[in-house]
TrEMBL record:
Transmembrane region(s): none
Lineage: Bacteria, Pseudomonadati, Bacteroidota, Sphingobacteriia, Sphingobacteriales
MF terms (GO), sorted A to Z: nucleic acid binding
Domain CSD stretches: 4-53
Protein's name in the database: Cold shock domain-containing protein
Length: 236
């Protein structure tokens, strides 16, 4: 699905537009929602949809739409990992704001707020853990943790941000896989699995060998210093 933010929407007439990072401006009609929203749609709300081209001019219309509303929609938001998530929200027809008004808008940030604003910290923790356990691709582990560290956790109302981070990172360690360990090692991001920050750790030789196609020169130079370095370092 594609995610975008509502540019403007006329609730009386039932239509408006969505701004996306990858597909430009897309027409939105209230009948495009698979479940019609209870409340009025508002500018800047995050919507997930499938794009449908409807005219010979290539104008696009959203179909299969849904607002991001519950923790069950977190996986949809996470499809933005690794993508451009910035859009320019412009005032348009039906807005009180000036038509020249424009605002840079981060879909990941505001999608997170839309899902978790006003909800308890435990709801956020449970949602993140469920996504990690059931849906996260190992190759996106670092992107996921960077999102948590830089965007999500600072937005969550908590009495102890450090404890919130450690709760998540300790769970990641408890469910550690070889692929996750390799990602933490390669990106020098052991803190994401609750290891001491700033230290290097000699990961098992079999993990290195299983991921040897992903290693670059700096990785090999790092491995050279490990106890098994001479046995796995490629001959020059």
């Amino acid at each position: 699905m594609i995610l975008g933010a509502i540019n403007w929407f006329n609730n009386e007439k039932g239509f408006g537009t969505i701004q996306t990072a990858c597909s430009g401006t897309v027409f939105l009609h209230i009948n495009s929602f698979y479940r019609r929203p209870i409340d009025e749609l508002k500018r800047k709300q995050i919507v997930a949809f499938k794009k449908k081209t409807t005219t010979d001019l290539g104008e696009s219309r959203a179909t299969g739409c849904k607002l991001l509303e519950t923790s069950a929609d977190f996986g949809i938001l996470m499809t933005l990992l690794g993508q451009n998530t910035m859009v320019d929200i412009r005032a348009g027809k039906g807005n009180k704001a000036s038509e020249h008004d424009e605002e840079h808008y981060c879909l990941l940030k505001h999608g997170t707020l839309q899902l978790f604003n006003g909800r308890p910290e435990r709801s956020f923790i449970d949602t993140v853990i469920h996504y990690f356990d059931k849906q996260l691709e190992e190759a996106k582990f670092i992107q996921f943790c960077t999102y948590l560290e830089q965007i999500a956790i600072p937005l969550i109302k908590t009495d102890d941000r450090e404890m919130l981070e450690q709760t998540l990172y300790c769970h990641f360690y408890a469910k550690l896989t070889a692929g996750i360990l390799f990602q933490a090692w390669k990106h020098h991001a052991f803190r994401y699995i609750a290891y001491t920050e700033g230290m290097d750790y000699e990961i098992p030789e079999e993990i290195v060998l299983a991921h040897r196609d992903e290693l670059d020169e700096s990785d090999w130079n790092r491995i050279r210093l490990y106890s098994y370095g001479p046995t796995v370092f490629p001959l020059e």
